[in-house]
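User: Structure tokens for this complex, please. No commentary.
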Amino acid sequence: MDLDLARRAQDGDESAFAEIVRRYSPRVFSTASRFFRQRSLVEEAAQEVFLKAFTQLGSFEGRGSLEGWLTRITTNTCLNLLRGSKRRPELTVSDLSEAEDQWLETQMSDDEQPSIENSVVAADLADRVLSVLSPEDQQALLMIDGERASVKEVAEATGWSEAKVKVRAFRARKKVREAMERLMGAKEKPATTESR
Amino acid sequence: MNDNHITEVLDNAALASLSPSELDEIRAHARDCEPCGNAFAAAQLAAFVIQERAQAVIEPSPFFQTRVMAALREQQATESVPAWLRLWNSARGLVSSMALTTAALAVFSFLTSAPATPPADQTVSALSAEAVILGQDADELTYEQVMSAIYEDVEDR
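Assistant:
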């Protein structure tokens, strides 16, 4: 089915390619959304993915799914787009917006599990914390811890070995936990922030 | 220092993937160990915000398919033009302006160029054998000549 659609699109059947775009754009968007929060950037990346996919349709052999093949192209395209972006060496409380700062304070003062008071603020804070990581490490952590994907699924989506995925996820988790711990520590003891 | 700190357990796997017994062990340890308690609290909050971030998915707009198909047609139209023609189209302006500038410079230099022959009164100055031996130009006066000219002038007065 996928192979037939790909071959027809490759032979110049425009409606076949339009069907590929219609069928798989939600998947491409969801993958690109891991890398970008702004709609314009996600759309730009997704468009590049489909244009690239069209020129590479001949290399799709139908062994895996077209969705998986497109996911891998999306991941590589987004990583390439992000390659030049700067990583934040360390995150401090002063980097947080007022809403994020307040959200963190509320979560810390509450003994219960974190509540979904404001998902957007939580996602914004996640972006801040994730900015200490490389795009590759972010990808591994978001897939495993955020989407509960298995190491094997991440390896298939990215083309990395399973060992590499495990190393990336471990390193990312540790860095994020430490960054969060520093933020929480700074919130608890504002007087000692400078000395830390 | 407690050897059984839980930080490595926290970093090794997603909190959501740990079994209830593993979580109980972590909680028990975190209660008695302050650094691990802080690490566990941070790991819980980090896991929560990451899950929130993972759910922030942008859906394709209804016009996305149309946009991609238009971009594809544009790309195909560009590719159908021969490479040399595309190169010429992009460089045409530059090449034309360079040719025009060269022609203008050629005309300008033709009109303003001076005659190449030297002036009639300009001759090669002959050097005396003495001047050549002493490494002096014929036009230059020796020290003695200068001194005698000064003395002659004084005597004339």
